């Protein structure tokens, strides 16, 4: 069980000005400012989970910023690397790699070669992956996986108990109707506030 003992690698990030690789990675990433703020709020030794990694664009930014800020962290990439509904054949965001076994995962692995040692992959569904963590063990989670209401609500519900009280529960694409409704309804059910900027949402205790 992650969050107990030493069953996962602790990344000792050194004081080093590493050049970013995210501009060379295909994908969607417009929340640089938010990820910077997350790193500024995280403790020196932290646990961070990105749910919905795709080809590694945003995660690579987070990892390299963490390196350049001399933080120590356990950084987890959670994805089944099968693509969401919109990435399947005949959909608007279709990617041919979804039709190749391990196509997306192999592309992701190729993209993150320079930072491979800083990331621990969990290749599974969001809900199953969350069960590998102890409750109250994560400092921050960023959810950017499926965008339909049911899956988003399930993702938030799965990761909510895993985050330390006062930690960061956040995600992307707040302008998508399914995401927006799921976040709003979860916040209401748990008496939490919401802050949103740059299409990012964050739940407030």
Blueprint (SSEs and pairs):
Elements: E1 11-12, H1 32-41, E2 45-51, H2 57-68, E3 72-79, H3 103-111, E4 120-123, H4 126-130, E5 138-143, H5 149-159, E6 163-172, H6 177-189, E7 193-197, E8 200-204
Helix pairs in contact: 1-2, 5-6
Concise structural overview:
The chain has six helices and eight strands; from the N terminus they run βαβαβαβαβαβαββ.
What does the model show?
There is one protein chain. The chain has a single domain (31-204), classed as 3-Layer(aba) Sandwich (Rossmann fold). The protein has helices at 32-41, 57-68, 103-111, 126-130, 149-159, 177-189, and strands spanning 11-12, 45-51, 72-79, 120-123, 138-143, 163-172, 193-197, 200-204. Helix 2 links the parallel strand 2 and strand 3. It contains six helices and eight strands; from the N terminus they run βαβαβαβαβαβαββ. Helix 5 crosses helix 6. The protein is globular, with a radius of gyration of 16 Å. It is of the alpha/beta class.
Helical amount among residues, as a percent range?
25-40%
State the secondary-structure class: alpha/beta
Q: How many beta-strand runs?
A: 8
CATH topology: Rossmann fold
Number of helices: 6
Q: List segments where confidence is low: pLDDT < 50 over at least 5 consecutive residues.
A: 4-8
Keywords, please?
single chain; 205 residues; alpha/beta; Rossmann fold; 8-stranded mixed beta sheet; 6 helices; 8 strands; globular
């Amino acid at each position: 069980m992650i969050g107990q003992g030493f069953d996962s690698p602790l990344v000792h990030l050194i004081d080093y000005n590493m050049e970013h690789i995210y501009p060379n990675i295909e994908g969607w990433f417009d929340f640089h400012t938010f990820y910077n703020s997350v790193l500024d709020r995280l403790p020196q030794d932290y646990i961070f989970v990105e749910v919905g990694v795709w080809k590694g664009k945003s995660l690579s930014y987070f990892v390299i910023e963490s390196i350049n800020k001399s933080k120590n962290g356990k950084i987890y990439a959670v994805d089944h690397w099968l693509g969401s509904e919109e990435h399947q054949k005949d959909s608007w965001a279709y990617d041919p790699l979804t039709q190749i076994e391990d196509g997306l995962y192999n592309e992701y692995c190729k993209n993150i070669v320079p930072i491979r040692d800083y990331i621990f992959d969990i290749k599974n569904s969001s809900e199953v992956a969350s069960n590998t963590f102890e409750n109250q063990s994560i400092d921050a989670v960023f959810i950017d996986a499926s965008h339909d209401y049911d899956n988003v609500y399930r993702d938030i519900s799965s990761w909510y108990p895993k985050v330390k009280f006062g930690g960061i529960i956040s995600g992307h694409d707040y302008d998508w109707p399914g995401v927006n409704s799921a976040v709003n309804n979860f916040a209401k059910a748990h008496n939490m506030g919401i802050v949103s900027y740059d299409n990012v949402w964050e739940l407030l205790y």
